[in-house]
Write a structure and sequence with these properties.
This protein has 3 domains: 48 residues; 139 residues, C2 domain (Immunoglobulin-like); 138 residues, Immunoglobulin-like (Sandwich), CATH 2.60.40.150. The chain has 3 helices and 17 strands. The strands form 4 sheets. The protein has a 5-stranded mixed β-sheet with strand order 1-9-2-3-6, with no helix packed on it. A 4-stranded antiparallel β-sheet has the order 5-4-7-8, with no helix packed on it. It has a 4-stranded antiparallel β-sheet with strand order 14-11-10-17, with helices on one face.
Protein backbone atom coordinates (compact mmCIF):
# COMPACT_ATOMS: atom_id res chain seq x y z
CA UNK A 1 0.00 0.00 0.00
CA UNK A 2 2.71 2.34 0.81
CA UNK A 3 4.46 1.67 -2.46
CA UNK A 4 1.25 2.28 -4.30
CA UNK A 5 0.73 5.64 -2.58
CA UNK A 6 4.23 6.76 -3.47
CA UNK A 7 3.73 5.83 -7.06
CA UNK A 8 0.45 7.70 -7.28
CA UNK A 9 2.04 10.79 -5.76
CA UNK A 10 4.85 10.65 -8.23
CA UNK A 11 2.46 10.16 -11.05
CA UNK A 12 0.37 13.12 -10.00
CA UNK A 13 3.40 15.38 -9.77
CA UNK A 14 4.76 14.44 -13.20
CA UNK A 15 3.37 16.25 -16.26
CA UNK A 16 0.57 14.58 -18.07
CA UNK A 17 1.49 15.89 -21.54
CA UNK A 18 4.76 16.14 -23.41
CA UNK A 19 4.49 19.94 -23.57
CA UNK A 20 4.17 20.10 -19.85
CA UNK A 21 7.09 17.76 -19.39
CA UNK A 22 9.23 19.87 -21.73
CA UNK A 23 8.15 23.06 -19.99
CA UNK A 24 9.00 21.52 -16.67
CA UNK A 25 12.39 20.43 -17.92
CA UNK A 26 13.24 23.93 -19.27
CA UNK A 27 12.10 25.63 -16.06
CA UNK A 28 14.16 23.19 -14.06
CA UNK A 29 17.21 23.91 -16.21
CA UNK A 30 16.70 27.68 -15.88
CA UNK A 31 16.34 27.36 -12.14
CA UNK A 32 19.59 25.45 -12.04
CA UNK A 33 21.27 28.12 -14.22
CA UNK A 34 20.09 30.96 -12.01
CA UNK A 35 21.12 29.02 -8.97
CA UNK A 36 24.68 28.73 -10.42
CA UNK A 37 24.89 32.49 -11.07
CA UNK A 38 23.69 33.23 -7.54
CA UNK A 39 26.32 30.91 -6.14
CA UNK A 40 29.08 32.54 -8.21
CA UNK A 41 27.86 36.00 -7.14
CA UNK A 42 27.88 34.90 -3.57
CA UNK A 43 31.40 33.57 -4.04
CA UNK A 44 32.49 36.80 -5.78
CA UNK A 45 30.95 38.92 -3.06
CA UNK A 46 32.68 36.82 -0.47
CA UNK A 47 36.08 37.22 -2.23
CA UNK A 48 35.53 40.99 -2.63
CA UNK A 49 34.65 41.18 1.04
CA UNK A 50 37.74 39.21 1.84
CA UNK A 51 39.87 41.51 -0.39
CA UNK A 52 38.33 44.59 1.19
CA UNK A 53 38.92 43.16 4.61
CA UNK A 54 42.51 42.31 3.70
CA UNK A 55 43.03 45.84 2.29
CA UNK A 56 41.60 47.37 5.42
CA UNK A 57 43.73 45.12 7.55
CA UNK A 58 46.82 46.08 5.55
CA UNK A 59 45.91 49.74 5.93
CA UNK A 60 45.41 49.17 9.61
CA UNK A 61 48.75 47.39 9.81
CA UNK A 62 50.60 50.20 8.00
CA UNK A 63 49.65 52.91 10.55
CA UNK A 64 50.52 50.53 13.30
CA UNK A 65 53.90 49.93 11.72
CA UNK A 66 54.42 53.66 11.24
CA UNK A 67 53.25 54.24 14.77
CA UNK A 68 55.62 51.60 15.97
CA UNK A 69 58.56 53.15 14.07
CA UNK A 70 57.66 56.60 15.38
CA UNK A 71 57.31 55.18 18.84
CA UNK A 72 60.62 53.40 18.54
CA UNK A 73 62.31 56.56 17.28
CA UNK A 74 60.73 58.54 20.08
CA UNK A 75 61.83 55.96 22.58
CA UNK A 76 65.34 56.00 21.12
CA UNK A 77 65.42 59.78 21.31
CA UNK A 78 64.07 59.61 24.81
CA UNK A 79 66.73 57.10 25.75
CA UNK A 80 69.41 59.29 24.13
CA UNK A 81 68.08 62.37 25.93
CA UNK A 82 68.00 60.39 29.13
CA UNK A 83 71.61 59.31 28.56
CA UNK A 84 72.67 62.90 27.79
CA UNK A 85 70.79 64.14 30.83
CA UNK A 86 72.39 61.45 32.92
CA UNK A 87 75.81 62.40 31.52
CA UNK A 88 75.23 66.09 32.23
CA UNK A 89 73.91 65.23 35.64
CA UNK A 90 76.93 63.05 36.30
CA UNK A 91 79.27 65.81 35.15
CA UNK A 92 77.43 68.32 37.30
CA UNK A 93 77.63 65.98 40.26
CA UNK A 94 81.33 65.46 39.61
CA UNK A 95 81.95 69.20 39.36
CA UNK A 96 79.96 69.78 42.53
CA UNK A 97 81.88 67.02 44.27
CA UNK A 98 85.16 68.52 43.09
CA UNK A 99 84.11 71.90 44.45
CA UNK A 100 82.99 70.41 47.72
CA UNK A 101 86.16 68.43 48.24
CA UNK A 102 88.53 71.04 46.75
CA UNK A 103 90.60 72.39 49.68
CA UNK A 104 90.97 75.74 47.87
CA UNK A 105 87.22 76.14 47.35
CA UNK A 106 86.09 79.34 48.95
CA UNK A 107 89.67 80.61 49.49
CA UNK A 108 90.51 84.21 48.58
CA UNK A 109 92.43 84.53 45.33
CA UNK A 110 94.60 87.68 45.59
CA UNK A 111 95.55 87.41 41.91
CA UNK A 112 91.90 87.96 40.96
CA UNK A 113 91.77 91.20 42.89
CA UNK A 114 94.73 93.36 41.77
CA UNK A 115 95.51 96.19 44.12
CA UNK A 116 96.98 99.51 43.29
CA UNK A 117 100.23 100.45 44.97
CA UNK A 118 100.05 102.92 47.82
CA UNK A 119 102.09 105.98 46.86
CA UNK A 120 103.84 107.85 49.69
CA UNK A 121 105.85 111.05 49.61
CA UNK A 122 108.68 111.54 52.09
CA UNK A 123 109.91 115.11 52.06
CA UNK A 124 112.64 116.87 53.99
CA UNK A 125 113.73 120.44 54.64
CA UNK A 126 117.14 119.62 53.23
CA UNK A 127 116.23 119.82 49.54
CA UNK A 128 118.29 120.14 46.40
CA UNK A 129 119.83 116.66 46.60
CA UNK A 130 117.37 114.95 44.26
CA UNK A 131 114.69 112.33 44.76
CA UNK A 132 114.65 108.55 45.10
CA UNK A 133 111.88 106.33 43.70
CA UNK A 134 111.42 102.88 45.27
CA UNK A 135 108.77 100.23 45.92
CA UNK A 136 108.63 98.17 49.13
CA UNK A 137 106.77 94.96 49.87
CA UNK A 138 106.98 92.00 52.24
CA UNK A 139 106.77 88.59 50.58
CA UNK A 140 104.92 86.34 53.03
CA UNK A 141 105.52 83.30 50.84
CA UNK A 142 109.33 83.46 51.09
CA UNK A 143 109.55 85.56 54.30
CA UNK A 144 111.61 88.24 52.51
CA UNK A 145 111.46 92.00 52.65
CA UNK A 146 111.71 93.04 48.98
CA UNK A 147 113.12 96.42 47.95
CA UNK A 148 112.54 97.46 44.35
CA UNK A 149 115.01 100.21 43.54
CA UNK A 150 113.45 102.00 40.58
CA UNK A 151 115.26 105.28 39.89
CA UNK A 152 116.71 108.52 41.18
CA UNK A 153 116.12 111.98 39.78
CA UNK A 154 117.88 115.35 39.87
CA UNK A 155 120.95 114.12 41.76
CA UNK A 156 123.66 116.70 42.47
CA UNK A 157 126.88 116.53 40.43
CA UNK A 158 129.89 115.05 42.14
CA UNK A 159 131.77 118.30 41.55
CA UNK A 160 129.47 121.31 42.00
CA UNK A 161 132.11 123.64 40.52
CA UNK A 162 132.39 121.96 37.13
CA UNK A 163 128.84 120.54 37.20
CA UNK A 164 129.96 117.35 35.48
CA UNK A 165 127.76 114.28 35.39
CA UNK A 166 128.07 111.67 38.11
CA UNK A 167 128.41 107.90 37.87
CA UNK A 168 125.92 107.10 40.63
CA UNK A 169 125.27 103.86 42.41
CA UNK A 170 123.31 103.07 45.58
CA UNK A 171 124.13 100.89 48.55
CA UNK A 172 121.14 99.59 50.53
CA UNK A 173 121.25 98.68 54.22
CA UNK A 174 118.64 97.46 56.69
CA UNK A 175 119.73 98.48 60.17
CA UNK A 176 120.37 96.76 62.47
CA UNK A 177 121.86 94.30 59.99
CA UNK A 178 120.06 91.03 59.21
CA UNK A 179 123.03 89.34 57.48
CA UNK A 180 126.55 90.02 56.21
CA UNK A 181 125.63 90.59 52.57
CA UNK A 182 126.44 93.91 50.91
CA UNK A 183 123.55 95.03 48.68
CA UNK A 184 124.63 97.46 46.02
CA UNK A 185 123.19 98.56 42.70
CA UNK A 186 125.02 98.70 39.41
CA UNK A 187 126.87 101.89 38.42
CA UNK A 188 125.06 104.15 35.95
CA UNK A 189 127.51 106.12 33.85
CA UNK A 190 127.33 109.87 33.26
CA UNK A 191 123.84 110.68 34.48
CA UNK A 192 122.06 112.60 37.21
CA UNK A 193 118.81 110.70 36.59
CA UNK A 194 119.81 107.04 36.84
CA UNK A 195 117.26 104.28 36.17
CA UNK A 196 118.05 101.06 38.05
CA UNK A 197 115.00 98.74 38.16
CA UNK A 198 116.80 96.32 40.50
CA UNK A 199 115.48 94.12 43.30
CA UNK A 200 117.04 93.37 46.69
CA UNK A 201 115.81 90.96 49.37
CA UNK A 202 116.31 90.89 53.13
CA UNK A 203 115.37 87.63 54.89
CA UNK A 204 113.60 88.32 58.18
CA UNK A 205 110.27 87.87 59.95
CA UNK A 206 107.53 90.38 59.28
CA UNK A 207 107.20 91.24 62.98
CA UNK A 208 110.92 92.10 63.20
CA UNK A 209 110.70 94.52 60.29
CA UNK A 210 109.09 97.27 62.37
CA UNK A 211 112.29 97.63 64.40
CA UNK A 212 114.44 98.27 61.32
CA UNK A 213 115.52 101.35 59.40
CA UNK A 214 116.01 101.15 55.64
CA UNK A 215 118.94 103.30 54.45
CA UNK A 216 119.91 104.19 50.87
CA UNK A 217 123.46 105.56 50.49
CA UNK A 218 124.05 107.29 47.16
CA UNK A 219 127.62 107.51 45.85
CA UNK A 220 129.48 108.72 42.81
CA UNK A 221 132.00 106.33 41.26
CA UNK A 222 134.79 107.70 39.09
CA UNK A 223 137.72 106.26 37.19
CA UNK A 224 139.96 106.54 40.25
CA UNK A 225 137.61 104.30 42.29
CA UNK A 226 136.72 107.32 44.36
CA UNK A 227 133.36 107.10 46.11
CA UNK A 228 131.92 110.54 46.84
CA UNK A 229 128.73 110.71 48.86
CA UNK A 230 125.77 112.18 46.96
CA UNK A 231 123.36 111.86 49.86
CA UNK A 232 121.19 109.35 51.67
CA UNK A 233 117.59 108.35 52.37
CA UNK A 234 116.37 106.86 55.64
CA UNK A 235 112.98 105.16 56.03
CA UNK A 236 111.75 104.03 59.43
CA UNK A 237 109.90 100.75 58.83
CA UNK A 238 107.74 101.34 61.91
CA UNK A 239 105.92 104.03 59.90
CA UNK A 240 105.33 102.00 56.73
CA UNK A 241 102.94 99.07 56.24
CA UNK A 242 104.52 96.81 53.63
CA UNK A 243 101.99 93.97 53.89
CA UNK A 244 100.85 95.43 50.55
CA UNK A 245 103.08 97.00 47.93
CA UNK A 246 104.04 100.58 48.81
CA UNK A 247 105.51 102.96 46.26
CA UNK A 248 107.58 105.81 47.69
CA UNK A 249 109.17 109.03 46.48
CA UNK A 250 111.76 110.28 48.97
CA UNK A 251 113.89 113.40 49.06
CA UNK A 252 117.62 112.70 49.13
CA UNK A 253 119.36 114.36 52.07
CA UNK A 254 122.96 115.23 52.64
CA UNK A 255 124.78 112.64 54.67
CA UNK A 256 124.24 113.39 58.35
CA UNK A 257 127.10 115.01 60.22
CA UNK A 258 126.81 113.81 63.76
CA UNK A 259 128.58 115.32 66.72
CA UNK A 260 132.19 114.23 66.91
CA UNK A 261 132.77 113.97 63.16
CA UNK A 262 136.13 115.34 62.09
CA UNK A 263 136.16 115.22 58.33
CA UNK A 264 136.55 112.32 55.88
CA UNK A 265 139.34 110.13 54.59
CA UNK A 266 139.62 108.17 51.32
CA UNK A 267 141.13 104.69 51.76
CA UNK A 268 141.79 101.88 49.27
CA UNK A 269 142.03 98.23 50.39
CA UNK A 270 143.28 95.15 48.54
CA UNK A 271 144.39 91.65 49.48
CA UNK A 272 146.66 89.41 47.40
CA UNK A 273 146.09 85.80 48.56
CA UNK A 274 149.12 84.32 46.75
CA UNK A 275 151.51 86.70 48.57
CA UNK A 276 149.27 86.88 51.67
CA UNK A 277 149.65 90.63 51.60
CA UNK A 278 147.13 93.25 52.76
CA UNK A 279 147.70 96.66 51.18
CA UNK A 280 146.19 99.86 52.61
CA UNK A 281 146.47 102.97 50.41
CA UNK A 282 145.90 106.26 52.24
CA UNK A 283 144.77 108.51 49.40
CA UNK A 284 143.56 111.80 50.93
CA UNK A 285 141.41 113.50 53.55
CA UNK A 286 139.14 116.52 53.51
CA UNK A 287 137.58 119.02 55.90
CA UNK A 288 139.71 118.02 58.86
CA UNK A 289 138.60 119.75 62.05
CA UNK A 290 141.22 121.34 64.24
CA UNK A 291 141.19 122.35 67.86
CA UNK A 292 140.46 126.00 68.52
CA UNK A 293 144.01 126.59 69.71
CA UNK A 294 145.69 125.34 66.52
CA UNK A 295 145.95 127.84 63.62
CA UNK A 296 146.74 125.07 61.10
CA UNK A 297 147.38 121.32 60.89
CA UNK A 298 150.26 119.11 59.85
CA UNK A 299 148.35 115.85 59.46
CA UNK A 300 149.64 112.32 59.01
CA UNK A 301 147.94 108.91 59.15
CA UNK A 302 148.75 105.97 61.38
CA UNK A 303 147.39 102.50 60.53
CA UNK A 304 147.33 99.84 63.26
CA UNK A 305 146.85 96.16 62.36
CA UNK A 306 144.87 94.29 65.03
CA UNK A 307 144.15 90.56 65.46
CA UNK A 308 141.24 89.72 67.75
CA UNK A 309 141.29 93.34 68.93
CA UNK A 310 144.99 93.37 69.88
CA UNK A 311 147.42 95.67 68.06
CA UNK A 312 150.21 93.64 66.51
CA UNK A 313 151.73 96.05 63.98
CA UNK A 314 151.70 99.77 63.18
CA UNK A 315 152.68 101.89 60.17
CA UNK A 316 152.28 105.56 59.29
CA UNK A 317 152.40 107.98 56.36
CA UNK A 318 154.46 111.11 55.86
CA UNK A 319 153.35 114.48 57.25
CA UNK A 320 151.53 117.03 55.08
CA UNK A 321 152.26 120.55 56.27
CA UNK A 322 149.60 123.19 56.82
CA UNK A 323 146.57 121.52 55.19
CA UNK A 324 143.09 120.44 56.24
CA UNK A 325 142.62 118.72 52.87
CA UNK A 326 145.85 116.70 52.60
CA UNK A 327 146.74 114.27 49.80
CA UNK A 328 149.08 111.33 50.47
CA UNK A 329 148.55 108.46 47.97
CA UNK A 330 150.85 106.25 50.07
CA UNK A 331 150.60 102.46 50.30
CA UNK A 332 151.15 100.60 53.58
CA UNK A 333 151.57 96.80 53.26
CA UNK A 334 151.05 94.13 55.95
CA UNK A 335 151.77 90.41 55.77
CA UNK A 336 148.59 88.62 56.77
CA UNK A 337 148.04 84.83 56.35
CA UNK A 338 144.73 83.91 54.75
CA UNK A 339 143.57 81.94 57.80
CA UNK A 340 144.17 84.98 60.03
CA UNK A 341 142.44 87.49 57.73
CA UNK A 342 138.90 86.96 59.15
CA UNK A 343 140.21 88.00 62.59
CA UNK A 344 141.99 91.12 61.33
CA UNK A 345 140.81 94.71 61.72
CA UNK A 346 142.43 98.05 60.94
CA UNK A 347 142.42 101.23 62.98
CA UNK A 348 143.07 104.26 60.77
CA UNK A 349 143.89 107.41 62.73
CA UNK A 350 144.59 110.95 61.47
CA UNK A 351 146.83 112.96 63.78
CA UNK A 352 148.21 116.46 63.86
CA UNK A 353 151.99 116.25 63.99
CA UNK A 354 153.52 117.82 67.08
CA UNK A 355 157.25 118.19 67.51
CA UNK A 356 156.92 117.97 71.27
CA UNK A 357 154.40 115.20 71.79
CA UNK A 358 152.97 112.27 69.87
CA UNK A 359 150.43 114.35 67.95
CA UNK A 360 146.83 115.37 68.56
CA UNK A 361 144.12 112.98 67.44
CA UNK A 362 142.00 114.60 64.71
CA UNK A 363 139.81 111.56 64.00
CA UNK A 364 139.81 107.85 63.27
CA UNK A 365 137.80 104.98 61.76
CA UNK A 366 137.78 101.20 62.21
CA UNK A 367 137.70 98.75 59.25
CA UNK A 368 136.87 95.06 59.50
CA UNK A 369 136.59 92.72 62.45
CA UNK A 370 133.47 94.34 63.90
CA UNK A 371 129.78 93.61 64.05
CA UNK A 372 128.93 97.29 63.84
CA UNK A 373 126.95 97.95 60.62
CA UNK A 374 127.92 100.76 58.30
CA UNK A 375 130.21 101.74 55.48
CA UNK A 376 133.35 100.63 57.32
CA UNK A 377 132.11 97.05 57.56
CA UNK A 378 130.79 97.11 54.00
CA UNK A 379 134.15 98.27 52.67
CA UNK A 380 135.97 95.43 54.39
CA UNK A 381 133.53 92.85 53.03
CA UNK A 382 133.90 94.28 49.53
CA UNK A 383 137.66 93.79 49.80
CA UNK A 384 137.23 90.16 50.88
CA UNK A 385 134.78 89.51 48.05
CA UNK A 386 136.95 91.17 45.37
CA UNK A 387 140.43 89.91 46.19
CA UNK A 388 143.30 91.08 43.95
CA UNK A 389 141.29 94.24 43.24
CA UNK A 390 141.63 97.63 44.92
CA UNK A 391 138.42 98.84 46.53
CA UNK A 392 138.32 102.51 47.57
CA UNK A 393 135.78 104.29 49.77
CA UNK A 394 135.33 107.45 51.77
CA UNK A 395 134.99 107.07 55.55
CA UNK A 396 133.91 109.52 58.22
CA UNK A 397 136.49 110.34 60.87
CA UNK A 398 135.29 110.45 64.47
CA UNK A 399 137.13 111.43 67.63
Amino acid sequence: MMQLSKFLAKFKSSPTTPEAAFRQTVESAMRKHHAGEDLSGINNNESESEDLQISRESRAIQPKTSSMSTTSRSSMRSEQFTDDTSSISAKSDASVDSLIFDPNFGAIRPDLYPRKDIVLQQSSLDGGQGRLHTRLKYDFRTCDFVVHLIEAQDLPPADPVTGTFSDPYIRISLLPCVDERVRQSSVKRRTLNPYFNEYFKFPLDFDDLKEKTLVFHLFDYDKFSRHTSLGEVEISMANVDVSNSVEMWCDVQKQHKVAGESGEILISLSYLPTAERLTVVIMKAKELKLSTAAPSADPFVRVSLMVDGKKVKRKKTSVRRGSVNPVWNEALAFNVPAEVLPKVSLEVSVLDHDLIGHGEMLGRCLLGGTDKPGEEQGHWKDMLTNQRKSVAMWHILRK
